[in-house]
Amino acid sequence: MNNSYQIYLVSDSTGETLDRIFIALKAQFKNFNYEANHFSFTRTENQVSKILETCKKQKKSIILYTIVDDKLAEFLTNEANKIKVPCFGVLGDLILSFSKLLNQEALHVPSRQYTLDGDYNEKIEAIQFTMNHDDGNLAEDVQKSDIILLGVSRTSKTPTSIYLANKGYKVSNIPLVNENSIPNFLKKNKNTKCIVGLTVEPERLIEIRKTRMNTLNEVRGKNYTDLKKINEEVEMSKKTFQKYKWPVIDVTRKSVEETAASIIKMYEIKKKNA
Fold first, then answer.
1. Residues of 102-116 as b/e, b for ≥16 C-beta within 10 angstroms?
2. Could you count the other beta carbons within 10 Å of the beta carbon of residue 175?
């Protein structure tokens, strides 16, 4: 017998916002068995009715929605109440509160956050820049970066860079082999940019490197996964960061999102004090 909750995630756009909210919500409950059902670009009563028909056939259904059209949101809520399915709008009250606070009518336009405006173009430019400056590439123009990440191999530099790029930051990441691998610009201008060192516990680094080698069938020298050598690498990186007084983040128990959030905070402080 299936005791899982049936979670219906109903959005009038891509559903990305709702997905993120649900991820944050479910993380607060240890014993929460569920099956997620995604319905994006839901913009008509007919679409809503079809979703509710499915809900009626399932036990333990819950609806979460992000719909900016007040009439459609009201229709969904009323019809869900009729069949006794819990239904929660995650943006409605917030939009109404902001409307009152700002003393202006909300636009209620679906997908407006994806408008192809200047901000969108800047984000695309940041992504392109970051991909071109991955793993030490084009280090000669590192000064054009908003954020510069350094660290030994497999310290989450690339995924963190890409995540930051998707938020509009131009990022360069540089593998730290030794001090000579640091571009001269950074040595001479160590405080002019948001430069962050990434480190990880040696034991965890061995696991990551071995997993990558097995997954990609990579062939590396013995030193790449030798604990003694890795300890030396990590210690060297820490001393280098300390020498140039660059802030350090230990990513051992951090997700990419958590690491990126810390870096953004550092960037904002650096920019404010510039």
1. eeeeeebebeeeeee
2. 17
Structural contact between residues 176 and 240, judged by C-beta atoms closer than 8 angstroms? yes
Residues ≥6 apart with Cβ < 8 Å to 149: 157, 160, 161, 171, 172, 173, 174, 196, 197, 198, 263
130 contacts: CB under 8 Å, gap ≥ 6: 161, 162, 164, 165, 169, 170, 171, 172
Read off the pTM.
0.69
Total domains in the chain come to: 2
Same-domain status, 129 and 210: yes
Q: Which domain holds residue 37?
A: 5-114
**DSSP count for the chain of H helices, then E strands:** 10, 8
Which residue, 64, 83, 114, sits at the end of a domain? Answer: 114
Q: Are 137 and 161 in contact (CB under 8 A)?
A: no
| Residue 260 contacts residue 163 (beta carbons within 8 Å) | yes
pLDDT digits (tens, 9 = 90+) for 190-228: 888 999 999 999 999 999 999 988 888 888 888 899 999
Q: Is the distance from CB of 139 to CB of 172 less than 8 angstroms?
A: yes
E strands, 86-212, are 87-89, 147-151, 171-175, 194-199
Listed residues 52, 82, 114: the one ending a domain: 114
User: Do 141 and 76 fall into the same domain?
Assistant: no
> What would the pLDDT profile of 27-56 be if each residue is shown by its tens digit?
888 888 999 999 999 999 999 999 999 999
Does 80 share its domain with 147?
Answer: no
Torsion of Cα atoms, 55 then 58 then 62 then 63, to 10°: -20
